[in-house]
Design a protein that fits this description.
Length: 387
């Protein structure tokens, strides 16, 4: 992805003019690849550009070349005690669980690599993060019996990362997990549940779990944010040509919940007032848990100096035995009304009669509003009832 310019805090609000001045001429000359240019590119001799599910004219250069943002293919992990030395308690991490194995992937590392090809408890996964969409999505890498490895194309569509698999060099839309160019066009990857929470919430829940190491094989300024001020922009996002859905500010953080083909968004601005939401979607009882106090990864030049925003997670409120719980926020804790058990942000009951129970994750994710609505324009926006 293209790094945003570093804008002094004193001029955050009028940054639209500054960004336009800095990027206007460059965008006109650099980000208009035509289909013919794509198909003849020497970077992609093995990609079949005659097979596509999208208009190739929608795909733009993000600046870096193929693998210019290098995926991590041999991830190393360290203990919580070791990661405490360089990871702030409030920094955001992607938490992934497969059976009893849990790992955390700090955004301070992901923003420089965007893809980690990993395997947890024998399940091959790609942990992906697109900074321009604030989209952290985890995919199962198995397709038709073959395990794929993913890299970055250096291209964007709707401001979102376009990945490629090294086995066929097909191109994939990160936001949807769908092949869009090449022999795998139309194939959809299976998503694996994941959450973004503050590091402290992760390590409190899983003190023995492992954390992605800074020992990546690459020299990068981990802990620095090359997209300074990006999530405060009140105008159109970078490299996005589509009309912006007027229902929400484009850079509003949202958490989506999807049941079948129906999608509902919960804006973060509302979660500060309603940190716990009980809802139903297509007959499924849904709970949204949120907690303020996670550092934005896309605010200041140093993540540890950034402003605090909420974390949010989503779960089914129905237990395995069929009981349906109702949750409330009480003195900063999440409590179910049926048993008085206390739950953490990762959907675990930590005290009370239900201690040890784990809620089933909903099909959900945290993104910028513009990105989710660009790919899912028929989504509903949740409106809280103040009563």
């Amino acid at each position: 992805m293209l790094a945003c310019p570093k804008i002094p805090r004193a001029v955050h609000r009028p940054r639209r003019t500054i960004v336009s001045a800095l990027f206007g001429a460059w965008l006109l000359h650099s980000i208009q690849p035509a289909p013919a240019q794509l198909s003849m590119s020497g970077e992609w001799p093995n990609t079949d550009f005659t097979i596509t599910t999208v208009d190739l004219g929608e795909i733009m250069s993000g600046g870096p070349p193929k693998d210019g943002i290098p995926a991590i293919d041999d991830p190393k992990f360290v203990s919580v005690a070791e990661s405490d030395r360089w990871l702030h308690d409030r920094e955001p991490v992607i938490v992934v669980r497969v059976r009893e194995q849990v790992r955390a992937y700090p955004l301070q590392i992901l923003m420089y690599h965007e893809i980690v090809n990993d395997s947890i408890a024998g399940v091959p996964l790609s942990i992906t993060f697109c900074p321009l969409c604030n989209a952290s999505i985890v995919f199962d890498r198995r397709v038709n019996g073959e395990t794929l490895d993913f890299g970055t194309t250096g291209r964007l569509r709707k401001s979102d990362l376009v990945m490629y698999d090294r086995q066929t060099e097909s191109w994939w839309q990160q936001f949807t997990g769908t092949g869009i160019v090449g022999v795998n066009a139309g194939v959809e990857l299976t998503r694996h549940p994941a959450s973004i929470v503050a590091y402290r919430d992760f390590k409190t829940a899983h003190p023995e779990a492992r954390v992605l190491s800074r020992d990546t094989g690459f020299s990068r300024p981990y802990g620095r944010n090359p997209y300074r001020g990006y999530d405060r922009i009140e105008d159109r996002p970078f490299l996005f040509r589509d009309p912006v859905d007027p229902r929400l500010p484009p850079m509003e953080y949202v958490i989506n919940v999807s049941v079948g083909d129906r999608h509902r968004l919960y804006p973060f601005s509302m979660l500060k007032q309603f940190p716990v939401i009980n809802d139903h979607l297509e007959g499924e009882p849904i709970a949204i848990f949120s907690r303020d106090g996670t550092l934005s990864a896309l605010d200041e030049g140093r993540i540890v100096a950034s402003r605090l925003i909420p974390s949010a997670t989503a779960f089914s409120r129905r237990l395995e035995d069929g009981r349906e719980l109702v949750f409330a926020a009480e003195d900063g804790a999440i409590v179910d009304e049926q048993t008085g058990s206390v739950w953490n942000l990762l959907g675990q009951a930590v005290t009370g009669p239900l201690a040890g129970k784990q809620l089933r994750p909903a099909d959900s994710g945290v993104h910028f509003a513009f990105a989710w609505l660009a790919f899912n324009p028929d989504s509903e926006i949740y409106r809280a009832d103040p009563d």
